[in-house]
Specification:
Elements (H helix, E strand, L loop, with lengths): L1 E3 L2 H9 L6 E4 L7 H5 L7 E3 L5 H9 L3 E3 L17 H4 L15 H11 L8 H22 L19 H6 L5 E5 L9 H15 L3 E4 L5 H7 L8 H12 L9 H13 L7 E3 L16 E2 L5 H11 L3 E4 L4 H15 L9 E4 L1 H7 L2 H9 L8 E4 L2 H13 L3
Helix pairs in contact: 8-9, 8-16, 12-13
């Protein structure tokens, strides 16, 4: 459905064929009431618009669907863009770690807990969360270039499902996800390896995607800031972060903001997208991502995270959550969801073949199948990047 998000777009549509089949979002309709009374609005969806009572009744009579404004929430369920770290962390003072409690991210998490957590009983709460997550999904499509305001139907067939046509329409030549453990310490050598991997991927013009939390996910987004950094500069960054190595350390977030502000004085980060969730709100989203698609519904978030990585996923050593993502991706490849088979690269031979022997099962599951040609077990960052290149060119 074509989106109408500005007054200019509204006037243009009213001057044309009307609003039938359009989505009108967050506008004040009162100044345009006279024209709207006679406009074609069959199938039009109005999301969070200011609508006088008489006009609202008239629009409904003529086939429009109105979703009311929900003003008593700590978030906008009809937001038009993804979050940025500055928005979620507005008011945070690195010198006062306790100030996180006053940020938008913390307030939304508090609301999530107060309204039932993962099992809300209030239908209004459920609706507000779902509307918010749909808006975030739409923001992801806008970022990827697949669904621009004023465009025709989005090329993705449905929420969470990518198609070959959608990928071809994307502004990003490839979208690569980096998965791994949230408990990876900042002073672990693997943290540096994941950062180096991310830098290599981002420098190719590919979009880096992660689950948006701490550990390997933080390293994935940090790498997008370190392009062009000298060895000494990178070392200083790692030393600063390592002083608070785990996400539950008091200065974990403060150290990240200190590094981010220092890096921002030197360069613009390469693009990255994080997709965290308030379901795991005790893990603050890392502030190194350039865009944050934070959602309430964790199952939709997890499915979407795997599905978006059409260019491949690198699975760095992780635990239960990473293993779950592996088999979500394997199932999508097995059944060629959206007509796609995406590369799966496992970084860490010992980890994936012995400590958590996922690799033997993946080999057995994919044996004799087309997607078995797009899986690889590697040991180094160089091998991981080479595998991403090689597996993409494998023809079926």
């Amino acid at each position: 459905m074509r989106e109408v998000e500005t007054e200019e777009e509204l006037l243009r549509e009213l001057a044309g064929d009307g609003l039938a089949g359009r989505v009108v979002q967050g506008l004040d309709l009162a100044p345009h009431a006279a024209r709207l009374h006679g406009a074609a609005v069959s199938g039009t969806v109005f999301l969070g618009c200011r609508t006088p009572g008489t006009l609202a009744a008239r629009l409904i009579e003529r086939g429009a669907l109105l979703f009311p404004r929900l003003d008593d929430l700590p978030f906008d369920p009809y937001r038009r863009t993804l979050y940025t770290p500055d928005e979620l962390y507005e008011g945070f003072d690195p010198g006062r770690p306790e100030s996180y409690a006053t940020t938008r991210d913390a307030l939304i998490y508090a609301w999530w807990r107060q309204t039932g957590g993962g099992e809300p009983e209030d239908l209004r709460v459920t609706l507000a969360r779902r509307l918010h997550d749909l808006s975030i999904h739409d923001g992801i499509q806008d970022l990827l270039g697949e669904h621009r305001p004023g465009s025709a139907e989005p090329t993705a067939a449905a929420e969470g499902v990518e198609t070959a046509a959608a990928v071809a329409a994307s502004r990003w030549p490839r979208r690569i996800a980096i998965m791994g453990g949230h408990s990876l310490r900042r002073d672990d050598p693997l943290f540096r390896e994941v950062t180096a991997l991310s830098t290599r991927i981002a420098l190719r013009g590919w979009l880096v995607i992660s689950g948006g939390g701490p550990g390997a996910m933080e390293a994935a987004h940090l790498g997008c800031w370190l392009h062009g950094a000298s060895k000494a500069e990178r070392e200083h960054v790692f030393e600063t972060l390592a002083a608070a190595p785990e996400y539950h350390d008091v200065e974990w977030l403060s150290r990240a903001f200190t590094v981010r502000r220092r890096l921002a004085d030197e360069r613009e980060p390469l693009a990255s997208l994080s997709i965290p969730t308030w379901h795991y709100g005790h893990e603050p989203p890392n502030p190194f991502a350039t865009r944050i698609a934070k959602k309430f519904n964790n199952s939709l978030r997890e499915e979407g995270l795997v599905t978006l990585a059409t260019g491949g996923i690198v699975f760095t050593p992780g635990s239960a959550g990473t293993v779950q993502e592996i088999f979500q991706d394997a199932a999508q490849n097995h059944y060629r969801v959206g007509g796609l088979v995406c590369p799966m690269v496992f970084l860490g031979r010992e980890h994936w073949s012995r400590r958590l022997p996922v690799w033997p099962l993946i080999e057995a599951l994919s044996e004799g199948r087309l997607w078995g040609r797009r899986v690889a077990l590697v040991e180094t960052v160089d091998e991981a990047v080479e595998a991403l290149d090689r597996l993409t060119t494998v023809e079926f």
